[in-house]
Design a protein that fits this description.
By secondary structure, this protein is mostly helical. It is built from 15 helices and 1 strand; from the N terminus they run αααααααααααααβαα. It has 2 domains: about 230 residues, MetI-like (MetI-like fold, Orthogonal Bundle), CATH 1.10.3720; about 60 residues.
Length: about 375
């Protein structure tokens, strides 16, 4: 029987072979496109269709806002031509009204100063590298609202001209309602969430009834009730400022939703954390403030920011009670005879939408930054 075994030479490498770069089709832009947009026939079709839709939308917006737009002029007559785009002179002419509403133009420095102080305090509070967060937090949450009210409203011992809230409007009013609602509703929502999980039947029942009542009513109804129906239940001669009534309604409405978000975070905490607090001999207050609540708040950052963004956009509903917010100022501006053209309302609404998007996107990005910074999990 013949030997069919073939002689083979063994090759022993004496040195490491140099590393070769990965294939061009698996790295860079080409690799990302193949992995995320063209990994299969179906994904390729959907990607091409999406690109086409985005192209049509982007082209239309670009032509309306840039190519066919009117950039200079005085009065709506410059925009009463065919195939014209955005009428930006209208925004430039009405910009102060969009920001301050009916606030006296000689007193613009007062809300500007309030905006500057709030921006500085918010920067100091939101920047992790800057120490003294407790001090900045107290100044922003307690001292700043008082200073802002007396600075913007004036009158009394301040020596400033009194400007009633009926003259507040535009972006200034939007920020007042949004910031007040977000800041004031958060502690109320936390207390309601803790009360709903309480072992005391009376406390738990009161919190459940409050949360379900406010969550079951639309915000526009809450504002209408606060403005029209609330005075009917008060003693004769008692009257609340219209803005204060709207702030109370917005705060209580948002607090109910915040309570459910925080309660979800508390339920997501493992039972071992509560047992560990008991084993350390901590009382309820210590266990809540030092162990359970910080973990719950870290978990529900996306939900809290989502509520904040929703509230910021829902401030447009205050127009139902006669307050002129940013969107209301845009609508009022288009009603004047001086500025009347087919594209002027669209231009105003586009400007308002851009402002709302900038603030909402900033809150969303900062929340994502805080999520990454506070993430204590072990990523593989």
């Amino acid at each position: 029987m013949a030997d069919t075994t073939k002689n083979s030479a063994l090759y022993v490498r004496s040195e490491m072979a140099p590393d070769m770069p990965p294939p061009v089709r698996t790295q860079g832009v080409v690799g990302w496109l193949r992995a995320n947009m063209f990994s299969s026939v179906g994904n390729s079709i959907l990607s091409l269709l999406s690109i086409y839709v985005i192209y049509l939308a982007a082209t239309g917006i670009y032509n309306f806002t840039i190519v066919n737009a009117i950039w200079q002029g005085d009065g709506g007559a410059v925009c009463r031509v065919e195939n014209v785009g955005a009428c930006w002179p209208y925004v430039g002419n009405r910009l102060t009204f969009f920001i301050y509403g009916f606030y006296p133009d000689t007193e613009y420095w007062r809300p500007n100063l309030a905006f500057a102080i709030g921006g500085i305090l918010l920067f100091l509070l939101a920047t992790p590298q800057i120490p003294g967060k407790i001090i900045w937090g107290v100044l922003f949450l307690v001292v700043y609202p008082v200073i802002t009210f007396f600075l913007v409203h004036g009158g009394g011992f301040t020596g400033l001209e009194a400007v009633p809230t009926e003259k507040w409007g535009g972006l200034m009013l939007t920020l007042v309602v949004a910031v007040t609602g977000i800041v004031a509703s958060f502690p109320i929502g936390v207390v309601l969430a803790l009360g709903r999980r309480s072992k005391m039947p009376l406390v738990r029942s009161v919190c459940v009834v409050f949360i379900e009542l406010w969550r079951g009513v639309p915000l526009i109804t809450v504002l209408f009730m606060a403005s029209v129906m609330l005075p009917l239940f008060l003693p004769e001669g008692t009257n609340f400022d219209k803005l204060v009534r709207a702030l109370v309604g917005v705060t209580l409405f948002t607090a109910a939703y915040t309570a459910e978000v925080v309660r979800g975070g508390l339920q997501a905490i493992p039972k071992g954390q509560f047992e560990a607090a008991d084993a350390l001999g901590l009382n309820y207050f210590q266990a809540t403030m030092l162990i359970t609540l910080p973990q719950a708040l870290k978990i529900v950052i996306p939900g809290i920011v989502n509520n904040s963004i929703s509230l910021f956009k829902d401030t447009t509903l205050v127009s139902i009670v006669g307050l002129v917010d940013l969107l209301g100022a845009v609508r009022a501006g288009t009603a004047t005879g001086t500025w009347s053209a087919p594209t002027i309302p669209v231009t105003g609404y586009l400007f308002a939408a851009t402002i709302f998007w900038v603030f909402s996107f900033a809150m969303s990005r900062y929340s994502q930054y805080m999520e990454r910074r506070l993430d204590t999990g072990h990523k593989s």
